[in-house]
# Entry
Amino acid sequence: SQADHPPGMRRSTDLDNFVDFEGLWPGPECNAMRCADLIAFGDGARTACPSGAPNDLERFSLRNNYPNINFFRAFHAGAVFLSLALGEHLGADALLHGLVERLEGDRTMDRDGIAAAPDRWDADLALGLLTGAVVGVPLTAVEARLVATYYGRALDAYARWTAWDPWDPAVPDEALAYAPDRGSTGDDGTARYWIPIEALATPLEYCASPFRNPSGIAPFDCDALLAGARMP
# Structure
């Protein structure tokens, strides 16, 4: 409870507090709470989330603050992963079905009123799909192509970034961006996006995952990818 948080600890008023929205919706952050319980206590029975599918808070938050959708997808995938890793198989099965429902709904939903460029939505969804595939979501051919497209764009974009080594004499002695951009705007004003740099290694997680679903379509050649990364 935030009511008895340690002295000096910042009180969160955002989604990471798990409790402030309980009075408006039932179990609005169930996936996040289950992750915390599994990590802290190894006990999924403390927070049973049925399928973990999107709830009213999530859809309301999506229209109020679009980037929250990435947190909701990550919490759901995390709840599946931790349930599998700790042997909570019944809970994992229900959550995995809910994650499939979530990602399919995100791919096909009406985005009217959501403040996100269509290409930004698809780029973030591609990452969400791959994160889901790490824990057992079987990707369809359409979904695998989406993942491959936005990771391919990322590789092309980051290969052109000139500041990987700021000590290289060829790099100008000036203020440099902390990380490469994950999008650009064309001459016609169209926004174009790709996978953010911090998620560039997720294909390695996917290819090395013991939970990868063999019935799904692989967006990468995992044999070549793992061999290139010198992984068994």
